[in-house]
From TrEMBL:
Domain Bacterial bifunctional deaminase-reductase C-terminal: 3-187
Protein name as catalogued: Dihydrofolate reductase
Length: 194
């Protein structure tokens, strides 16, 4: 059985929207895009590289998949992140895409996200990682399909923006299995479902 692992940059007030770039996600008039960039350092790079070193498949929502095509799918450098992103099988959960041919090794999953992911989890194969895709994470969490959260908790509050859990989330207990503090005050916390 496969596990589902989520990695998210998150503010102290729970915002997960647009950490990477100013234009990453401006929905709802969000003007703080790129808030996470100032927290990158060698410690974070090393910790993220550990996750990329493990072979695995990716699970992405449509918006994140389309954004990642621009960020990673067209790159040709020898960067280990680029190599990992392009080589991984990318399962794209979408009700609106017609196909997933725009990025190599992408597979379109149409229909209910929880049903599709439950079926994938039941198969033998590599673990599934989600980076971003907050609405997908919310629906999978509600269906008890998330096995691990890696949260990069940044020392900032924004007061606005999409939060990890915007509505009620079912009672779910997690255990802190590892944590690292970066030189810029980020706590990288790994939580496994109990």
């Amino acid at each position: 059985m496969r596990s589902v692992r989520v990695t998210l940059w998150i503010t102290l007030d729970g915002v997960v929207q647009g950490p990477g770039r100013a234009d990453e996600d401006t929905r709802g008039g969000f003007t703080y895009g790129g808030w996470g960039e100032r927290y990158n350092d060698e410690v974070m790079g090393r910790e993220m590289a550990k996750g990329m070193a493990e072979p695995g498949d990716m699970l992405l929502g449509r918006r994140t998949w389309q954004d990642f095509i621009t960020a990673w799918g067209r790159r040709t450098d020898d960067n280990s992140v680029t190599a990992h992103m392009n080589a991984a099988t990318k399962y794209v959960v979408s009700m609106t895409l017609d196909d997933a041919n725009a990025w190599q090794n992408s597979v379109l999953l149409r229909g209910d996200a929880a049903d599709n992911v439950a079926a994938l989890k039941a198969e033998s194969g590599r673990d599934l990682s989600i980076i971003g895709s907050a609405s997908l994470v919310r629906s999978l969490h509600a269906a008890s399909l998330i096995d691990r959260y890696t949260l990069l908790i940044c020392p900032v509050t924004l007061g606005t923006g999409a939060r990890l859990f915007e509505g009620p989330a079912p009672l779910t207990e997690f255990e802190l299995v590892a944590s690292v503090a970066t030189t810029r005050g980020v706590i990288i916390a790994h939580y496994d479902r109990r």
